[in-house]
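Hi,

I'm pasting everything inline rather than attaching a file, because the server keeps stripping attachments. The sequence lines come first, and each chain or strand is labelled.
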Amino acid sequence: MRVAVIGTGYVGLVTGVVLAQLGNHVICVDNDPEKVKKLRQGIPPIYEPDVEDLLKKGLAAGFLCISDSIEEAAENSDIIMIAVGTPPGFDGAPDMTAVKAVASEIAKSIKHYTVIVNKSTVPVGSGDVVEKILLDAGVKPDMFDVVSNPEFLREGSAVYDTLHPDRIVIGAKSKEAADKLVELYHPLGSPVHITDLASAELIKYASNSFLATKISFINAISRICELSGANVGDVAKGMGADRRIGDQFLQAGLGWGGSCLPKDVQGLIKTGERLGYNFELLQAVSDINEDQTANFVRRLERRLGGFEEKTIGLLGLAFKPNTDDIRDAKSLVIIKEILSKGGKVRASDPIAEKNVRQVFPQITYLKSAYEVAKGSDALLLVTEWSEFRGLDWDMIALLLKQKIVFDGRRVYDRGALEKSGIEYHTIGS
Ligand code: UDX
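And the predicted assembly:
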């Protein structure tokens, strides 16, 4: 099939290269000339496993091309996917400016029946907004259909998730449009859920908000564990064995970050407000998430007797392993707090360092956990990269100024650290 994908961020680029790999003719469009230039050379603007390989293969095989023109894309495709950013606006609600601008461009360019797919995470009712933009621009109703087809990929495993989705959600008003997407995704062999537009839009927000709720719930339980002497790892295992609950997203830690969960939780709270429902539960989910990091930093501060003149070593900066994304990363909140109270920070991250450098040029960036440990008053695990999992604790103990480790992701073995003479602190046990 002939598909155009507008926007080459995580969702757009991954979708584009995967659809090309499946044998579709795909045009990926971006309005950033630098990105377009790099993509044409096979260089992705994001770090994501397998994307570069699929990009190069797609370009070489002629199934994928990169363009800066929505007009060119519209002329040469039957399906146009809108995958531009919807960052949180000043009030926390998603900013729809880019989606609306793309819809206006499409309206000017459409010459034959086209299925317009909203892949960006957009609030309930956005499909209707896009439809209205086209109708107001004079496009005849029989020339297009708007479909919601939200993406559930996770950063770090985005290609795998796109190739093996648990489900494909298609929200459409017309059967013809829904059938086109069913055909497009047929090679994946995944279950398809066809709904109305609003339900599909809400499935995305409800799913991400539910995942955030699960994490905040176990993090709240971790606090009860700390107060009662229970172990949150055992509690999560026991809970997760109940199939109605499930064992995923029950890993207690510093809380959730990234480009989706924080944005979508706020987005759904705002949608509730707009529609007249006060989603208090989600506000609590968000508050618990903030306090989870703050409480851990408070514990560290108390243990060190304040941050003034202290050096803290941070392991990991990305919001989670296998990505260079630092959007809503816990590292940023932690660094800000330590610096504001007169402390110094030494840090290491396999790939997110360059992004954090732009926010905090004043901290020391190092290549390994051992370099970070050297002379630090405490070592703090923020992101559970595999590089930081199997450390030589005798060596770390020798390098640290004070033998203190705060494990924000519950990955280390208390016994092993204590054997090396290290004082171990974690979350929920
Ligand atoms: C998420 C959704 O999983 C995905 O379906 C959606 O399309 C985009 O948002 P992503 O943000 O890439 O994906 O990361 P995810 O793996 O879901 O982790 C989100 C955050 O939760 C990370 O900060 C992670 O560290 C944290 N997390 C995750 C926990 O603290 N505990 C867990 O048990 C799981």
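The first helix runs from residue 10 to 21.

If the labels don't parse on your end, tell me and I'll reformat.
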